[in-house]
Design a protein that fits this description.
With 305 residues, the chain is α/β, with parallel strands linked by helices. It has one domain: Alpha-Beta Barrel (TIM Barrel). Helices cover 40% and strands 16% of the residues. The chain contains 11 helices and 12 strands. The strands form 3 sheets. An 8-stranded parallel sheet has the order 3-2-1-12-9-8-6-4. A two-stranded antiparallel ribbon has the order 5-7. α1 links the parallel β1 and β2. The chain is globular, with a radius of gyration of 19 Å. The termini are close together. The model has no long low-confidence stretch (mean pLDDT 96).
Amino acid sequence: MGGVALYACWNARAVGLVMTAEASIATAAATGFQGVDLLVRDVIDAGRDPGELKRRMDDLGLRGGGWTLPMNWKNDEASFESDLARLPRCAEVAAQLGLFRTGTWVRFESEPVAPETLGSREARDRVVAETTAWQVERLGRIARILGEHGGRLGLEVIGSRSERTGEGVPLVSTYRDLLRRYADLGRAYSNVGVLADAYHLYAAGEEAEAALAWGVEAVGWVHLADPANPDRTTMRDVERLLPGESGGELCRKLLTRLAEGGYDGPVTAEPLAQSRSFRSDDAQERARLTREALRRVWPASGASS
């Protein structure tokens, strides 16, 4: 089938498995995936040769997908600086593996504040401005390093209301707010875009278009999962199903819109470890079910699934 080259990627961690890079590559190929996502920091820490891994991927016809950003950037400055110092090496190895897309979510709530701060509009606005400013500064530094190695950074939200404690000032929990509040960052760094996540779109009460306000070309990575609990007031982030399993159409609609717009990047199913979609810990079985789920929601206008 013709069309644009969005492609299905196997991500072991996204289905609750811990696998070596070699095992992930082999499993992806054996179960019909077109690409594979890898944990670059694990590759480095295990002393694996990225060139050898990439040759194996090429031999099996696998494309590089996305890679998890190895950064604790949302909390204390010391942790951020420590991880940032390692990022150039991680970005270099990612590029050697053909992995040029990563992503991260922005904070949905500030650190806990005093009750009087929560009760004052002026004080809340000040916390929002300050918290957004340091996030933009840190994300810019991350994007600069990724860009030196051809990498892209996608931003996403945590849409699940149950994740909020109520002790901090609400920040960003919808794609609409994300793309408005971080627009200057996107303009400053051409490699900063969007990680379009169907589960969080649903949780935030948004349609697919909300993640595409910067254009389809700004989307760097796609994550798919259905909600196991459709009630947005009580759904928890870990309560997920494989794409399409709930009977909803958001995953298919998102992929269809992306395919129509020319998206050419990785698509990863992310039902997480606790998903009741799986009844076995067997890696091949989880990969097979994940691949079948992606085929069910694949757009007719997309590349062959």
